[in-house]
Structures are given as C-alpha cells and as structure tokens.
C-alpha cells in the first residue's frame, strides 16, 4: 500500500490515471499529447504507477498500451473507507456516477471499409493535401508529426479552415489519431472530438477502420454517420480505379 499512496501523492500521476479512466489502453505518445511534460518525465511517472500496480501494460506489435488497474484502489477503499461509512458512501457514489455518466457519455461512430491497395497508399491518401482535395473536397494540411496542428481547408482558394485539430498519434503507415474541432474552439480540449484511422494489411487488401469518438451529441453522430461513408467511398474509388466517384457522394439525398 505504501507504493500506492506514493503514486497517488503526485498530481501528474493522478492526471495520468484520469486519462486512462477516460480512455483505457493508450500509448505513451497518446498520454504525452495530453500532458504538458517531456516524454521522459511521463515515462518515469508511468514507471511509478506500474510499480504500484496501478497501471499495467500490454504489447501490441511495436506499441505498448497502458491500462488502468483498479484493484489497488479497490483494496484501499475497502481498507480505509468502506468499513467506516460503507452504506452512506455507496449511496453517494451511485448518485455521483449517474450524474457523471449523464455528463460524459458522448457518442462514437465506427466505420470499416476494405480497399484493394497497400497501407502506404492508404496512408498517403489520408495525409496528402492534394489527394484529400481530390476525394474529400478539402485539403488536409499538416506535416503529420505527433503534436502538430492540422487543418481541413477549403479548395476554393479562400484558405478557410472548417476543421482544425492536433495530431495525437502518427505511426505511418498503420495508425493516425487526430483531434477535431471548429477553428473558433481551437485550444479548448473539451470541445474536441477524436478520429482514429487504423490501417491493417491482409494479403492484397487493406482494412481501414475509422473511429470518431467524443462526439458532442446525437446530432453530431448523425452528421458523421452520413459524412464518413461518403468520403471513404470516394477514397476507395480513387485508390482502386484512379478516379473518384462520378458524383459527389455527400450530395446524394438522405433517406429515412
């Protein structure tokens, strides 16, 4: 228990646990992107949390994923809290959990498509400003390095940015994670949603999985549920045939 108390005594380590509670299974790069601290310092804090058994890690290929381990916290609660005020605290905890869930339960969207291509070409299609202009109608502009800014820029020459965000993870050609928000909300983390592109090769095809999380509400979910299939169908056509669809897919009338 001494290691647990020591680990919890530091604000940064508590923030790391909060981040894993919000989104479990993050890489070091993802955790660093949300903590204003050098990568080496974050690594040292994670080592303390691992030593206290508050964080466990799993290897996935070259990635090391970090997971919150709640067992020591549960043991601490049973030993130091529950035996004194168990009934009342549990009732209060249930009320708080319901309130927090109501405030933080933001919808997510997942879309999977299969493309006759290579991971390298799919990565290029997602990160090339010229190619995104061709199949998306916007130029996605960035150097695509972790921590860099990116922008979804109109192709009419106006330079207007309709979406901006930060590159959270950049692991070419297999994984790209970005935040999304409106230009007027740039810098306000609570307004951002999060898009993950997972690119997996299988023989001569690629499985592209797009996960759009932390959407504001059901209205935003409805918008991306219409928009992502249209954009990704255009991308698939471009990579497989060399040309986009003959009509812009997002102009097809919605039904239902």
Automatic annotation (TrEMBL):
<comment type="similarity">
    <text>Belongs to the AHA1 family.</text>
</comment>
<dbReference type="Pfam" id="PF12840">
    <property type="entry name" value="HTH_20"/>
</dbReference>
<feature type="domain" description="HTH arsR-type">
    <location>
        <begin position="1"/>
        <end position="88"/>
    </location>
</feature>
<dbReference type="InterPro" id="IPR013538">
    <property type="entry name" value="ASHA1/2-like_C"/>
</dbReference>
<dbReference type="InterPro" id="IPR011991">
    <property type="entry name" value="ArsR-like_HTH"/>
</dbReference>
<dbReference type="InterPro" id="IPR001845">
    <property type="entry name" value="HTH_ArsR_DNA-bd_dom"/>
</dbReference>
<dbReference type="InterPro" id="IPR036390">
    <property type="entry name" value="WH_DNA-bd_sf"/>
</dbReference>
<dbReference type="Pfam" id="PF08327">
    <property type="entry name" value="AHSA1"/>
</dbReference>
<protein>
    <submittedName>
        <fullName>Metalloregulator ArsR/SmtB family transcription factor</fullName>
    </submittedName>
</protein>
<dbReference type="InterPro" id="IPR023393">
    <property type="entry name" value="START-like_dom_sf"/>
</dbReference>
<dbReference type="InterPro" id="IPR036388">
    <property type="entry name" value="WH-like_DNA-bd_sf"/>
</dbReference>
